Queue: 2 jobs
Job 1
Amino acid sequence: GYVIYFLLNLVQWAKHSSSPVHVVVLFLIVVMWLTICLPLVLIGASIGYRMESLKVPTRLAPVARMIPKQEWYMDNLPIFAMCGLMPFGACFIELTYILSSFWQGRIYYMFGFLALAFIIVIIT
């Protein structure tokens, strides 16, 4: 992702746009990642590698049990749709109403729907 952003920034810089980020700022982000995140990851990996393995506090049953087949709504695609698309859709519809009422000079009157969308976002 960083390389793509850097290349898009170079295109904006070549077109003399007013929105590109300075190369120094992009370089500082890389330096911060190399000096903060990378050492912490390496230290954490070395500490985790040296630790002894965790002991499970329960015994395993000697009889193998059958795992029941999952229902269709427990697969990944429906869960992704329910957990991602539903809150996004609620927020999108709410923002559409708010911005259309703002741009068209209307009074926004759907505060109950706004509260419901807010609760959905907080829950998810």
Note: Residues 9 and 21 are 7 Å apart (CA to CA).
Job 2
Amino acid sequence: FVGQTKTKVEEQLKKAKGGVLFIDEAYELGKGQYGSEALTAIVAAMTNPEYADTVIIIAGYREDIDKMLDVNVGLKSRFTQYLEFPDWERGDCMAFVGKIAERENVGVEDAGLRMLERGFEELIGLPGWGNARDVHKLWAAMKRERAVRVKDQPEDERALTEAD
């Protein structure tokens, strides 16, 4: 409801006082009446000495964050330090798959790894590719395929194949 947004933002700011308020997908704050209300409350806190010991981090896609900051002039002048995380390369995706596989004690056959490498080469170039999020989605899909494959033919070792 209109008017409650400021209260909710202030509650989160109080919880973060003396520490860090991390706002993921912050670009959503630049949209609509509620977002505008939230941004106004954040700017007010950033100018309030009571929150001088609080760090506010906004995270999101660069272009979307830029648009969101353009919505409120006071906000743009207060976020002066940027950390840009580059999109993952194929090797980053493969390393992450390796970590997930190790953690879950699941092997991946060589043919499956080669197929993943080729797939990641294509996927990382698509708009909206979400690095770890999308690698996790792909991993989950592969495990679902494996579950169907081994349902009637249990295997000795848990392993993903090219078919998965």
Note: The two ends are 46 Å apart (CA to CA).
